[in-house]
Design brief:
The chain has 312 residues and is an alpha/beta fold. Helix content is 38%, strand content 18%. It binds nicotinamide-adenine-dinucleotide. The site of nicotinamide-adenine-dinucleotide has 26 residues, from α3 and β7.
């Protein structure tokens, strides 16, 4: 089988593509930055071409050339800094280009990345976990655009009978993450490099999921023919920045991590209690313990710095 991956040379895509190849798939990746990833170890199983998701001609011509029967769109702007016109082109028109090309070409299953950001602040849900059926409270550009993507996917499914599935990753973590939510990542990678780091509130809450785990989620859902639902929360490990700091200190007792205040961040944290029952029961995913992932990230950073691994 052949898979068309849009935005595949980024943080998550570079983990998704090798997993697809390991399952015997042929991949054509289209990215506006085709040279930021090296898939040479995967030989002729992966081809990367330059293409801009905001240009419908690029999307449909590359998708057609791929001969794919499955498509995944990971291209997006992870942030809220873009002017509205540019953000709309990439996040809204780009996603629609992927859906429309998939419709015209009769693609069997299309998967796209939504985000936990659609849920907005945790305070909307009190102390309970948000589900996929809850109201979407996003108010910032990124989350509102993801929320519209979910509506648009639902509209294509209703009007054209397509199979389109959205995954809402939580706060994805990994040693090379540089875009999106990065405080919970820097809290691990900076001490691993021996650098001091400081944050406003120890009780600020996050829901990290390792990039290898979210890549596995995307691949399982993409390779299924017709998932039972149109949207799946990934969930992750609910934790505070203070608790992540304590974990880091277990491996790096001299880590220089400071917080301005012990409290004050929880009430303004984004959604961090997330119900992923749907995903777990249908796709049987299991995430490695977060402590293991923290150690893995520390050791990957230390290896880059020429330092010995930590144990524990
Ligand atoms: N990383 C996270 O924590 C996280 C959390 C929730 C959701 N997501 C979603 O997962 C998806 C992948 O995230 P990521 O962390 O890999 O992001 P990333 O920024 O590392 O990767 C995005 C890729 O899209 C490409 N791209 C950007 N503009 C493009 C264009 N006009 N045409 C073609 N390609 C273009 C980039 O070159 C990049 O390779 C995104 O939709 C993101 O919103 C990520």
């Amino acid at each position: 089988m052949s898979i068309f991956v849009i935005g595949g040379t980024g943080f998550i895509g570079t983990r998704v593509i090798p997993l697809l190849v390991a399952r015997g798939e042929q991949v054509l990746c289209m990215d506006i930055n085709p040279h930021t990833a090296d898939f040479s170890a995967l030989g002729d199983k992966v081809t990367v071409v330059r293409g801009d998701v905001t240009q419908f001609d690029d999307v449909i011509s590359r998708m057609h050339a791929s001969g794919a029967d499955r498509v995944i769109n990971l291209s997006y702007n992870l942030g809220a800094e873009l002017p509205p016109h540019l953000a709309t082109k990439l996040n809204i028109i780009g996603m629609d280009n992927a859906f429309e090309a998939a419709r015209i070409l009769g693609i069997k299953h299309t998967v796209y990345a939504s985000s936990l950001a659609v849920s907005g602040q945790q305070s909307h849900f009190g102390e309970r976990a948000a589900t996929e059926d809850d109201y979407r409270y996003a108010t910032a550009q990124y989350g509102v655009h993801k929320s519209f993507n979910e509506f648009q996917a639902q509209d294509y499914v209703a009007k054209h009978g397509m199979a389109i599935t959205g995954i809402r990753p939580a706060n994805v973590t990994g040693p090379d993450k540089v875009r999106g939510s990065v405080d919970h990542v820097n809290l691990i990678t900076q001490p691993a490099r021996g650098n001091p780091i400081s944050f406003p509130f120890a009780d600020a809450m996050r829901c990290p999921i390792h990039v290898d785990d979210i890549a596995e989620v995307f691949v399982r859902v993409l390779l299924s023919d017709k998932p039972k639902h149109q949207i799946y929360n990934s969930g992750g490990h609910t934790t505070s920045l203070g608790d992540i700091a304590n974990l880091v200190r277990e491996f790096l007792p001299d880590a220089k991590i400071t917080f301005d205040k012990p409290t004050g961040g929880k009430d303004t944290s984004g959604n961090y209690l997330i119900d992923n029952t749907r995903l777990v029961s249908e796709f049987g995913v299991q995430y490695l313990p977060y402590r293991e992932r923290v150690r893995q990230i520390i050791n990957e950073v230390r290896a880059q710095e020429g330092l010995p691994p930590v144990r524990g």
